[in-house]
Design a protein that fits this description.
The protein is an alpha+beta fold. Strands 2-1-7-6-4 form a 5-stranded antiparallel beta sheet, covered by helices on one side. Strands 3-5 form a two-stranded antiparallel sheet. β6 and β7 form a beta hairpin. The longest helix is centred in the first third of the chain and has 11 residues.
């Protein structure tokens, strides 16, 4: 329930079918294909959010304007061979963000999720400060997927 997108993707990363207008025939990025490798091997996978600009190749516009978590499962042919992957996407602020919020031990604590590149995957209660410091655009409605965490003093 509450899925915002569904895609069927082949092993080359081609989006064969989708519920998202304008995404049919696009390709997912090499990083997404790599994320899907265990699914093409027969497993299932949770895939963390990433900006649409890093998830898709060749898109001229992005229909999913909030961070999306993906659940991926194999699509098998009559012989049981994996021929594609079905991805179901949900906005991360619907559940993923709530799970981390539940980990807050006291009013001053906060839990964040970020990926292997340091991309912030969750919202921050310091969004206004991040905007004021120019870390995210002043008009950005959300901070998730807008910046990467870095070691202080590095670019």
């Amino acid at each position: 329930a509450n899925a915002v997108a569904a895609n069927v993707v082949d092993a080359r990363g081609n989006i064969l079918a989708t519920t998202v207008a304008g995404y049919q025939g696009l390709q997912v990025s090499r990083a997404v294909v790599d994320d899907l490798a265990p699914v093409f091997a027969g497993g299932t996978r949770f895939i963390a959010p990433r900006p649409e600009s890093e998830r898709l190749v060749g898109a001229t516009r992005y229909a999913l304007n909030r961070p999306v978590v993906w659940f991926a499962a194999p699509v098998r042919d009559a012989r049981g061979q994996v021929i594609a992957v079905l991805q179901i996407g949900k906005y991360s602020d619907m559940r993923f963000q709530g799970i981390l919020g539940a980990a807050r031990l006291d009013p001053t604590a906060e839990s964040y999720a970020f990926d292997e590149t340091g991309m912030m995957l969750t919202e921050s209660r310091y969004a206004d400060a991040l905007r004021a410091q120019g870390i995210v655009p002043a008009d950005a409605p959300r901070v998730a997927l807008r910046f990467r965490l870095r070691e202080p003093g590095t670019a």
